[in-house]
Amino acid sequence: MLLGAHVSISGTIDRAVDRARELKCTTFQLFTRNPRGWKAKKLKKEEIEEFKRKMKEYGYGLAVSHMPYLPNISSPLIQTYKKSLSSLIEELERAGELSLKYLVVHIGSHLGKGLDIGIKKAAESVNTALSKVNNDVVVLLENMAGQRNSVGSRFEDIKRILNLIEYPDRVGVCFDTCHAFAAGYDLRTREAIENTLRDFDEIIGLRLLKAVHINDSKGDLGSHLDRHEHIGMGKIGENGFRELFHNKYIRDLPLILETPVDSRGNFATNLAKCRELYI
To answer: Under the phi-then-psi rule, with left for phi > 0, alpha for psi from -120 to 50, and beta for the rest, what region is 173?
Structure first.
């Protein structure tokens, strides 16, 4: 079972591996820098070496990097687009330095300029970044919740982006359960999950599904509300995640929590709930 959480890099980046181990994760996700700013210090050689040493020592074969919050690779605004592209290039390079397999990318927003523009800009961003960074890191496009002006909440939209990518071996999809549910894809029962994954397969192809963000949803089905909830406490519910964890297409993928930390629970309690439902 590849189960983990998004862990902090506070201190030095190798501390993320320690935190994942403390939580008994078998995989994990991290930002490689401060996610709320545009600029990042270069990773020091000793940091990189210590990160890799701990990965090997603790037996981690796979970890996932996530883009920071500010970039919008679908932006029609020239300056935002340029900064977002630079950030994507930089994150691909940093993930490669750390020997991370995947970089998860939010597709972003077209800012009211239309879905066609957003899809074109997203594909252009990924193509340019992959052309400039020659490593083995795979970009995973993350499905969106369907917020106003968002790009990539429908499987058809993600497929349109993938069709424009010139490096098909270096792209895939990260499926976020909260986002999918909020976008209108039901995950509450075995039948609903099978229908959703059948649609995914027919439109995108399950071979491109590489990782799953496992988050319950505060919002109802089709609410377009991107609000994560503790596993079993939201609208997807325990049964939905139990069935999801027993689905043959999902069960063996990296399953990564991005659930809240509050008075009702934290990553440790959510990991425990997932292990209980996974059996």
So the answer is: beta
